[in-house]
Amino acid sequence: MTLLDIEDLAVTFPVEDGPDVPAVDGVDLQVEAGEIHGLVGESGSGKSVTARSIMRLLDGAEVTADRFAYRGEDLYAKSEAEMRAVRGDDIGMVFQDSLSALNPVMTVGEQIAEVVRHHGDVDESAGLLSELRRKYVTGTRKTASSWRRAVDLLETVGIPDPEEVATSYPHQLSGGQRQRVMIASALGGDPSLIVADEPTTALDVTVEASILDELRRLCDEFDVAILLITHDLGVVAETCDRVTVMYSGSVMEHGRTDQLFENPAHPYTKGLLRSIPEQAPPDGELTTIPGSAPEPTERPTGCPFRDRCPAAFDACADPLPEHVVDDGHVARCHLYTEGDDPGEVAWDARDGETNGTVDGATDRTTPTEVTDG
Ligand SMILES: Nc1ncnc2c1ncn2[C@@H]1O[C@H](COP(=O)(O)OP(=O)(O)OP(=O)(O)O)[C@@H](O)[C@H]1O
Ligand code: NI
Fold it and tell me: In this protein, which residues make up the domain named ABC transporter (predicted)?
């Protein structure tokens, strides 16, 4: 079942003395129930803006979409009160910066217990006065169901000694433990989807690996879907069932993780794959894509990647087409519009030089020169 179904999302930030910023422009995103879906792309590609659009947390931005459905219901047709119920109960969120996302003056057990009470799983008042009394006077009784559930959730996300940790304040915990607390808190509302924006980026690799394992396990065990935002394709390879690749506000390619890694179709995806150790060609150094992504206000027409693409040709100035590579695997790239496979993209040029040729593309207009970034 498709949980989240977004078609042609555009998000623009009005700017007072300057051009509006078209941060996201043309994003399709489908998240299936129970899957881990990777949203990947370089910095500034619009991953976080897309994530926040799902929670409707984009104050002042203009958001349009052909479709923006969660479980078949239009999220943008909901009232703010209905949306508050969606946040936390249906869709949980985990951010990169756990220290600023958690309340510094409440124990983590108290914070999770509050989420549990609001979700209504336990027969304890979550009214404002009751919460204020707990916060400033009594605290949650350690025998209360909401507290027991908070401790259970801490245990579920792999925190040793959860009783002890529940009575700690966020600053007393390590970054990895705080990230687990955020995941426990997101689970407190028993959501069907967790949006996790770079949840492990600030952590060292061993802690990152164990938290990703944990997410994988939670996804399988609780049947919760996770939209995992990352700029790290290695993380995607390890963790995700499917993946959507973004570049400069648009989706370039999406498909199952195995389809995308074994048979990448978009030159941008191919370029990204060359920059991760597991995927680099046997002969070679890791190569990053020369140049950098354009600012949203300076994006070229048509394919936003064409200035950096070694295979770009005249048609790339036209609006992005959709090429179905395989069942469930789509690339938005002009190279395929004539129905033939363009073969290898010349990403193997070294020293920042691209020779700009594509095998099998002899009948095309000569690709444009790519400048060294
Ligand atoms: N409130 C805002 N006002 C104006 N522009 C914004 C705003 N928020 C984001 N942007 C712009 O939107 C674009 C996309 O930003 P976003 O944070 O979604 O990128 P990202 O893919 O999450 O990058 P990163 O990997 O660095 O987190 C960027 O160019 C950014 O400058
Ligand atoms: Ni981001």
Answer: 4-273
Atom of ligand 1 nearest to the CA of 296: 29
Domain boundaries, given as residue ranges, for the chain: 91-190
Distance of CA 118 to the CA centre of its chain: 26
Is the ipTM higher than 0.90? The answer is yes
275 CA distance to ligand 1 middle (Å)? 22
Q: Which of 42, 47, 227 to mutate to test ligand 1, by most ligand atoms within 8 A of the CB atom?
A: 47
In angstroms, what is the span from residue 340 Cα to ligand 2's centroid?
A: 35
- Could you give the CA distance from residue 230 to residue 250 in angstroms, rounded to a whole number? 16
Ligand 1 contact, 43 CB (< 6 A): yes
Name the pTM for this structure: 0.88
Contact 154, 180 (CB under 8 A): yes
pLDDT, tens digit only, all 373 positions of the chain = 899 999 999 999 999 998 999 999 989 999 999 999 999 999 999 999 999 999 999 989 999 999 999 999 999 999 999 998 898 789 999 988 878 889 999 999 999 999 999 887 777 888 888 888 888 888 888 889 999 999 999 999 999 999 999 999 999 999 999 999 999 999 998 899 999 999 998 888 889 999 999 999 999 888 899 999 998 898 999 999 999 999 999 999 999 999 999 999 999 999 999 877 766 666 656 677 888 899 999 999 999 999 999 999 999 999 999 999 999 999 999 998 765 566 566 664 433 444 443 433 333 333 443 444 3
